[in-house]
Amino acid sequence: MRKPTFSLRAPLDGEIIDIPAPDRLSLYVCGYGIQVQRGQRLAAGSVLALHPRDLGGKVHAPVSGVVDKADFAYITMTSSTAPAPLPAAALPEDAEGLRQALQDLGVRMDRFVRQQNILVINGLNPEPTVSVAEQLLRDARSTIFRGLEAVCKLVSPNRCLLVAGDQGQSLPGCATVAVKPVYPNSLAERAILAATGKERPEGVAAVSVMKLWTIGRILETGRPVTDTVFTLAGKNYRALLGTPLSQILEFAGLAARPGDRLILGGPMRGYTVYDVEHGLEKGAYAVTLVSKDAFPPMVGAPCINCGECVLHCPARIRPDLIGRYAEYGLFDKCLAAGLASCMDCGQCSYWCTARRPLLHSLRFARKELAEAANPWPMNAAAR
Asked: What residues contact 93, with CB distance under 8 A and at least 6 apart?
């Protein structure tokens, strides 16, 4: 049987399609410090929630309207024409002021706090069937370059390298490193390896063209970016954050049938939402609808030691072993077995003959270890 190649090539069918703003938004804010309450009337651009980490970006209201609900998981808003959107912010020229301003406008800044020798721009489409990176490189080059200029101001790299496929993509001021457009070459770790020839080198940071586009939009408008571009069924769309996935599917002429899975993200790394009214999230580069019979279901069967997950693991660790440790709560052993090297690519789950949810297990172990080392109290950002 011929094995899949996980191609990252995707035809660009036309321009980015704008989805109309819905009457009601649902923003997922689980773990954030909520800053609003039910019944509050807000202007577009108002801060809704604070990230629990010091360098995390804030969540802003995509539209003006009234808060219908604000709990530990969701903030829902009904849009209106009043009050008027908040005015654009003046962005400082100095690096430290710009860093704080970008964080205040919603950008996670943990990768941009120290000087780097090399900045790697990951220009590959992030997953199979997803084409947002290629679309933005084609249609939003000026915005991406403006974001690149800002990041260079923050990290002062000696070199900028664009890792891209074989379609001749380029960015001003960047040397292009062509790699085979096959997953998992689009992972940040693999992009760094392709650019530098080294695994996990010091003084190297990677940033995606989607992140550069976001930063560039902020610099162009002085406002938080409250929409995102994503791939759905071979086309690229732009919608406000919080737009219910049911409305996105309806606009695209698609329907989720009983037993289908609706995934926020791509087919390898995304996660299944439990409710079609779940809102589009920040950073989502795909919405993927998987039909009921496309793949055998994941089950809790025992590992049969076939070794397929080990053979396809780009980090060269033992997902089978780590998954079993996680299953029994032996998280320290997960770390000793190489969990920190996991690239979160999802290939272990894809290739598992026994259909064990290995990616879920590895993510669970990582979350438990992170929580033990640095707890995320629900009100941490409010202190």
From this structure: none
